[in-house]
Design brief:
Largest sheet: none
Number of strands: 0
Order of helices and strands: HHHH
Strand content: under 5%
Shape: elongated
Number of helices: 4
Radius of gyration: 30 Å
Distance between the termini: 89 Å
């Protein structure tokens, strides 16, 4: 029966660059069943495929990457300043209600 330790071991060995046959041989030599090992590899492959199916995030511009890095390094949270457009209509004064006498 597979467990998280088996999955962690397989993942760790794959990340170290070990091939499937050497990982399988090591597990068989310490008593793991062939069917459990194969199921462990299948689960790892399924998990890998699920992760790869997520859409990648859009690349950031170089300036955005630098800004993000600078904010992370400074520990200061960026503050958004409101944008005030020139020639924006501003309503001020009193208003007469139409139809009132």
């Amino acid at each position: 029966m597979i467990n998280q330790k088996l999955l962690d071991y397989i993942k760790n060995q794959v990340e170290k660059g070990k091939d499937k046959n050497s990982i399988k041989s090591s597990l068989l030599s310490v008593g793991w069943q062939d069917s459990d090992i194969e199921e462990g590899f299948r689960i790892m492959d399924d998990n890998k495929n699920q992760v790869n199916q997520e859409p990648p995030s859009a690349p950031m511009s170089v300036q955005a990457q630098e800004n993000q890095y600078n904010y992370q390094q400074s520990g200061v949270q960026p503050q958004v300043q409101p944008s005030i457009q020139q020639n924006s209509p501003v309503l001020a004064g009193t208003f007469d209600l139409i139809g009132q006498t």
